[in-house]
Design goal:
This protein has helices at residues 7-14, 39-61, 69-79, 122-125, 168-183, 193-222, 230-256, 273-305, and strands at residues 25-26, 30-31, 35-38, 97-104, 109-112, 128-137, 142-149, 160-165, 186-187, 262-265. With 307 residues, it is an alpha+beta fold. Strands 1, 2, 4, 5, 6, 7 and 8 form a seven-stranded antiparallel sheet that branches. Strands 9-3-10 form a three-stranded mixed sheet. Strand 6 (128-137) and strand 7 form a beta hairpin. Helix 6 packs across helix 7 and helix 6 crosses helix 8.
C-alpha cells in the first residue's frame, strides 16, 4: 500500500468508528465588494493560506497516533475485508492541501501551490480576471476558500471568503484576520442612485445648452432676419434636455463600468483598461465638461441678473 490511500476510503472507514465528533463551525461568508485590490493585497490574502498550511503541515509531520485509535481503525479495516501491509496508522493519514488557480484576460489558466506567490509570476505579467485560493486540512477539519473576480460580480461562487472547521477559536481568529485585511483595501468609487441622477442630469444640461446654442446659431446664419426670444430658447432647451436623457443615461452606465465593484490591479499598466479609461475621463472632465459647466452657469447668471 502506498503512503496515502484514497481520501474517500479513509472517510468511509472513519465514518464507522463510534467516536463523538466535534461540532463543525462555519463562519458567515465574508463578502468582498467596493474595493480596489493591488498585488500586495492579493498576497496578504494568500499569506493567510500559507500560514495555516504551514501550521497544519507541522502538525501533520509531528503527529503521533493515540494508543486507542490504532486498534479501532485496524478492526474496521478488517471488517470491510481490507488489509493493511503496514501497521502504522500514520500511513493512512491525509496531508493538508493548498491550491491556487489564476485566470487571465487572455484565457490562460495557472494552477499550483506556488502559482500566486511566484516572483515575476502571472500577477505581474498578465491582467488577471479571477483568483481562487483554497486550503484544506482533512485531519484537522479546517478549510479556507478565497475567491476573487475582477468586475461587478458578487455571489456564492465569487468575491467572498468562506471558513469552516471544528475549532471555533481557530475559525474566529482566521475570520477576524481576513476581515481586517479586506477592510484595509482601498475603497472603490461607488455610484449611488443619487450620484447617477446628478451625473446624468449634469450631462443632459450640457447637451441641452450646447444643442440650443448650435441650433440658434445655425438658424441665424441661415435666416439673418430671424430672432430668438428667451421663451423660445427655453422651450428649445427643455426639448433638447429631454432628448438628451436618452443619451446621458447609457453614457453614465458606461462610465460606471470604469469603476468595477472589485478591481484587481495586476499586470502591466497598459493592460489595466479601467485605469486607462478613467484617466481619459478625467481629462475630458478637466478640459471640456467643467469649463462648459462654468460657462453655462455664467450665462444663466447673466440672463437672470442682466449684467
Amino acid at each position: 500500500m502506498g503512503r496515502y490511500v484514497h481520501v474517500s476510503f479513509i472517510k468511509f472507514i472513519r465514518s464507522r468508528i463510534d467516536t463523538a465528533k466535534p461540532i463543525k463551525v462555519t463562519e458567515p461568508p465574508l463578502e468582498i465588494a467596493g474595493v480596489v485590490i493591488p498585488i500586495d493585497g492579493i498576497k496578504q490574502l494568500a499569506n493567510v493560506i500559507e500560514d495555516e498550511y504551514s501550521k497544519s503541515m507541522d502538525e501533520f509531520e509531528n503527529w503521533q497516533p493515540k494508543p486507542f485509535d490504532k486498534p479501532k481503525l485496524l478492526d474496521k479495516i478488517k471488517e470491510i475485508g481490507k488489509s493493511s501491509k503496514r501497521k502504522n496508522l500514520e500511513e493512512i493519514r491525509i496531508a493538508p492541501v493548498k491550491k491556487y488557480i489564476i485566470k487571465s484576460a487572455d484565457k490562460t489558466q495557472y494552477e499550483g501551490e506556488d502559482a500566486l506567490l511566484r516572483e515575476n509570476g502571472p500577477l505581474f505579467g498578465k491582467r488577471i480576471t479571477s483568483i481562487e485560493m483554497d486550503f484544506t486540512d482533512i485531519e484537522g477539519n479546517k478549510s479556507i476558500s478565497i475567491k476573487l473576480e475582477h468586475g461587478d460580480v458578487a455571489s456564492d461562487i465569487s468575491n467572498n471568503v468562506s471558513i469552516s472547521g471544528n475549532d471555533e477559536i481557530w475559525a474566529n481568529g482566521v475570520h477576524r484576520r481576513l476581515e481586517t485585511i479586506i477592510g484595509d483595501f482601498q475603497k472603490q468609487t461607488e455610484f449611488t442612485p443619487l450620484r447617477r441622477v446628478i451625473l446624468s442630469t449634469s450631462l443632459s444640461v450640457i447637451f441641452g445648452w450646447l444643442g440650443t446654442n448650435v441650433i440658434v446659431a445655425l438658424t441665424r446664419l441661415s435666416i439673418p432676419d430671424s430672432s430668438w426670444d428667451l421663451e423660445s430658447s427655453v422651450v428649445l432647451f427643455v426639448v433638447i434636455f429631454g432628448l438628451s436623457v436618452f443619451i446621458s443615461t447609457p453614457l453614465v452606465e458606461k462610465i460606471e463600468k470604469y469603476y468595477p465593484s472589485v478591481e484587481l490591479i495586476t499586470g502591466p499598466e497598459h493592460q489595466r483598461m479601467e485605469e486607462i479609461r478613467r484617466k481619459r475621463l478625467y481629462r475630458i472632465l478637466s478640459y471640456i465638461v467643467i469649463p462648459l459647466g462654468l460657462s453655462i452657469l455664467l450665462e444663466i447668471m447673466r440672463s437672470v441678473f442682466h449684467y
